[in-house]
Structures are given as structure tokens and as C-alpha cells.
Amino acid sequence: MPGRVICVSRSLGAGGDAVARRVADALGYRYVDDEIIMRAADRAGVSPEAVGRAEQSKPMLGRILEALAAAPMATDAGAILPPQHPEPSYTGLIERVIHEVAEEGNVVIVAHGASIPLAGKEAVLRVLVTASPEVRAARQSAATETGIDAAWKAIEKSDRERAEYFRRMYKLDHELPTHYDMTVNTDAMSIEAAARLVVEAARA
What we know:
The protein has helices at about 15-25, 35-45, 50-55, 60-70, 90-105, 135-145, 150-170, 190-204; strands at about 5-10, 30, 75, 80, 105-110, 125-130, 180-185. By secondary structure, the chain is α/β, with parallel strands linked by helices.
């Protein structure tokens, strides 16, 4: 692995995206999020039309995986495989792309549970950015200019989907603190301070 890899996991409203972008800027690293699933879609030969047919209300990963399941897959030898169920084949594809991006080094990988498949890899720093539900809901309400009740519903829905993602992708019933090298609570510090802590840990 030619450079450092920082995996940032975050819950909705915790500010993890902002922390990750500041870390990437400070270190001069690439910021990678949607590129993971777009690469996976490309590997499977999914057309933009196939992705567009997926349900728009589902998270982007879910839409990509549904499109993958509905589309034939081209092999290196040029053969066209019939449509398959996305699990486990395409979940494995997501993992392979995560490893591929990590091997390129000098990258901040956001979301996709990247901390799980990259556990134990040299030069990987796994970070969880979290906050209390109350703070997250208040931030979500302010960010989306919606009422606090709608924000709470968004937080609860996001947390359910996050838990289901870990079960489906990595067979984890519970996300644990030990899945990460450091946990940053943005209740207790600003986004800027949280980013500085991660940068210092990355440089250590």
C-alpha cells in the first residue's frame, strides 16, 4: 500500500462528511465516497439507464445493487453472465473495490463500512464520527430546514438502514467501538477540532 488510508464512518447528523473533507484537504488526500459504488457498477457493466430504473427512494448503494442484480455482467473474457441476486456476489464486488481504492493510498474513504474489510491492514486508520441523537437531530433540522420531528424520523430511519447495511454486507449484528481505531464525538468538539485530531492521528 503506497500511502495512508483513512476510513471515516459516520451517522447522519454527526458531521462525519465535513470532518472527512477537512482531513482530506489537510493531508492532500483524495476524498472518496460515491466513487466506490460507481466503480463497482462499472466493473459489472451496468449502464446509466439500468441505474436510473432502480427505485429513486432507496439509498444510492441500494439502487446500484438492484441495478446490478437486474443487469447482465460482462467477464474479462467477454462472456455475458445472466442477471444474479446482488448477494453475495455484488456485495463482494463492493469489498473488492474498497480494497482497490485503499491500495492506491493517500485516500479518505467515507462510509460503505470500509473499516470492516480493511481491518488489520497496514497504514489504515479507522475513524467513527458520532454524536448524541439529540445533537444529530438538531443539526439535521437546521441543515434541511425541516421541523425537529421530521429530523428525528430521518435520524431513526438512517440508523435502521445503517444497522441493516452492516448485517447485510458484513454479517455484523452490532457495530462495536472495537471496529474502529478512534471515535470522535462531535457533541464534545467542533468539526474543525475533530478533523485536527484525526489528522494528528494519521500523521503519528
